[in-house]
Amino acid sequence: MDQNLDEKKLDKIKLRILEMETDNIVKKESNPAMEDKIRKMIISEVEKR
Amino acid sequence: MILNKLEMYNFRQYIGHQSIEFSSDSEKNVTVLIGVNTSGKTTIVRAFEWCFYGKNAFDDTVLLNSEVRNNMNRGDVQETWVSITFVHDEKVYTIKRSFKYVCSERYSEGDKLIVNLNKKPEENLSLEYLQSDGQTKTPIDRANITESMDRVLPKDLSDYFFFGGERISSIADRTDLSKAVRGLMRLDVLENASNHLKTVVKGFEGDIDTTGDSNAQRAKDGLETYTKRKAEYEQELANYDKQVQYWLGKEKEYDAQLAKSNIEQVKKAKQDRDRAQKALEAEVQRLSQVKAEMVRAFNTRPYAFFGLPAIKASLEMLEVAKEKAGEVKESVPAMEQDAVDYLINRGYCICGTRLDPGTIPYMKVMEERRVLPPEHVGDAVRQYKDKAEGYLAGTEDFKDKIEDKYKEYRATKRRIVQIQNEIEEQSKFIIDDTDAKEIENKRRDAHTKYIEAKSDYDGCSRKLGECESNIKNCESAIAKYAKNSAKNQRTALLITYSQKVYEWLLETYRGKEEIVRDELQRRVNDNFAKMYHGERSIVIDDKYRVRYSDIITEESDGLKAVKSFAFIASLVSMAKDKILDEDDMKLGQFYPLVMDAPFSNVDEIHIDNICRILPNTANQVVMAVMQKDWEYASVNLDKYVGKSYRIEKDRDANGKEIETATHIM
Amino acid sequence: MFDKDFRITGKHANYWKDLCELAGNVPDREQHANFKIFSAYIDAYIVCPLIGYQYDRKGVIDNSEEGNAGMLAEVISKRRQELKYVYQILMLVDEESEPDEDKRLYRAFTFSEENTEDKQLIEENIKVFNSYFLGGLEVLHEQFVEQCHDDDDYLKTMFDFVRRFYEEQDSEAIKDGIEKILNQ
């Protein structure tokens, strides 16, 4: 079942999400806004080469 | 954050310009401000809060010094400000907040002078930092100042670092400190990330196109419904939990009050009642066990019991059949029932005799048929009889077991009623004492409400569990479909990546949370042991509440204060030690402790202990204390004092202190 | 036999749910929230046919009421031995479906489903089994669900039902009789 996941991509996504959330502690954007950002980030990271 | 300097100008009772430089020496890290009772200690703490966050907690909200105010004429403008210089992330910052007041009118009413100021003073706020050349100042945009300050010392946590003596005892009693602790340890980043990602994953799952498969579509619809329901249940559950905790807390409160009673009888009755209560709980548990056992007994081979008459009839029948067959001594070798059936069907025997039903030849042939193989019929009968024997053995037990269980059930119920009556009696005893009567009523009421809330909670929890398993079922149905559809493979890939990251987040969060809680608990116990002269140990529960690991009936104010100190000291030291610091997570900061009259509610022996460990808990300790408390505390703290000031009031011609003219020297 | 999924609809399905602990995803769980005397559907399926026979009740599917309940083949296969046993008892003693004694003997001990005739025979027999099952559900529903309101009632009725059954059969005599036969 499991497609082979690119470890590098996974780590990249992990890092990005932590960075975004750390920033948001102060920025305090709404939940839907953050969810949208994260969603877009994941799509772009996964579809990248 | 390291505090360098606090400056005030015409702020509250402080007239003119005051300046306090804080000690940042690593050994002598205590700065002490000594004054007599109402001489302005609290104001200093509040000055911090106002300057940093714009928080104005004064009863009379006018911040301008009264004497300056009283000298204003209509149209005059006067300013009051507070500025703090501090170091954060190796940069030196200065924040300054000021209020400009305009006098709107001035008149006398009898021998009273009235000076009114405009309702909303003009506020100015500036934050700037020094470049590495030590000279150039770079200001920060006004719009970003609040954000920046929050990054330095989050407002939500400020209560823990700036506080007054009266507030100390309440800190460790707060009902939910998890937000504060998590914020401090930056666990909130992980938590927020997990929550957001969870929603994102759900979003991707929703993108799976299930229109081709009705099962998957149903699962998708089901998922939506159940997810909504789950959120509702979670909300309900949280509400019920609040109620449960509230009523439980109330009940414990009243219990503790009752325990305080000096009357021996009341004490003893309460002890008896507690004992009976425990016994009651055990019996209630036993009752539900017995019920389950009775059902289990009813479900153990009931067919052997309920089939008894039919089995008997069947065995009799088999006996008769055997006897009938017994008239024929031998059977024709190698002849089977099929052969006889064939003869009967064709209508005449091997020898040619007609085999018509009712005739003797026919009956003889039929007799023969009865003893003929198929061999397996004989075996089957034997097997059947064996089974009957085996099952038969259990039937007496079946009835007896059920009877026994039912008797036990009744007996347990009777015992429960008995104990309940006992408890009633004891409660009545407590009620007879008029003082305790009211408390006992309140306690009873709280207990009932607690039971109700608990049952609501349990019911909701059950429903939530069912909902969650329904959700899981739907998700796996959708996943199964996603794998099979080419259209959905891209989305499936997104889901896989997101899920993996989500799992990693959860794992990491849980791991770190455990570390935080364990470490916090260890430090709190450590500090507590150093501060408290008795024997107690502390447990941090999942809401980061500070609990004693043994049940106690009362807690003195001194004990509360020590508990709070231990907690705060631990929190601050953990932040200082950056216990979770990793290169990419930038957690942990220095925090100072700024306290006003910290010893006002603590007894001497604790003051001793607290003083011994305070300097080690934070980078800087700033303390505003009463003269008399300082005399005592200085014994232990003197060697840590890097800077010391006196808070004094000007005196008038008669030597009386002028309230509105306070100075820091 | 006893190796396929089994499902019923109508009022008996609801009776079944009222009497047994519900497992898995059950949408109308709330309508059957009473005390359960059986731990699982299969337990009722094994014993109700005997109760139905004893009370001489043959049930017929009644879809005037909405209801749906069933068991998967795996669940049934696990208890096949016991089901076979109960099936055999009924095959031996039920005169209404087969008045001829010899034929009853035959049908109780023949299990082959080689040809179509055999298959048909077995199918007919299973119908008898199932109709007594429905009857048993009716009896228990009347005795328990329709009369009991709380757990206390159920437990008392379980006790009474078993006791009465025992006494009515003069079980001692029955057991002695059986004992005698088996030990000849």
Descriptive labels:
heterotrimer, A: 49 residues, mainly alpha, 2 helices, B: 665 residues, alpha/beta, Rossmann fold, seven-stranded antiparallel sheet, six-stranded mixed sheet, 20 helices, 15 strands, elongated, ATP hydrolysis activity (chain B), Rad50/SbcC_AAA (chain B), Nuclease SbcCD subunit C (chain B)
Descriptive report:
The complex is a heterotrimer of chains A (49), B (665) and C (184). The mean pLDDT of chain A is 81. Chain A is mostly helical and 49 residues long. Chain A is built from two helices and no strands. Chain A has one domain (7-47). Chain B is an alpha/beta fold and 665 residues long. Among the domains of chain B are: 2-22 and 37-163, 3-Layer(aba) Sandwich (Rossmann fold), CATH 3.40.50; 164-209 and 485-588, no CATH class; 305-393, no CATH class. In chain B, 59% of the residues lie in helices and 16% in strands. Chain B contains 20 helices and 15 strands. In chain B, strands 1, 2, 4, 5, 6, 7 and 8 form a seven-stranded antiparallel beta sheet that branches. Chain B has a six-stranded mixed beta sheet with strand order 9-12-13-3-14-15. In chain B, helix 8 (214-259) runs antiparallel to helix 16 (434-484). The longest helix of chain B is centred in the C-terminal third of the chain and has 51 residues, at 434-484. Residues 579-589 of chain B have low confidence and may be disordered. Chain C is mainly alpha-helical and 184 residues long. Chain C has one domain (6-162). Helices cover 61% and strands 4% of the residues of chain C. The two termini of chain C are 32 Å apart. The mean pLDDT of chain C is 86. The A-B interface holds A 1-3, 5, 9-10, 13-15, 17-18, 20-22, 24-27, 31, 34-35, 38-39, 42-43, 45-46 and B 147-148, 150-151, 183, 186, 188-190, 192-193, 195-197, 199-200, 203-204, 483, 493-494, 496-498, 500-501, 504-505, 584-586. Chain B: One of its GO terms (molecular function) is ATP hydrolysis activity.
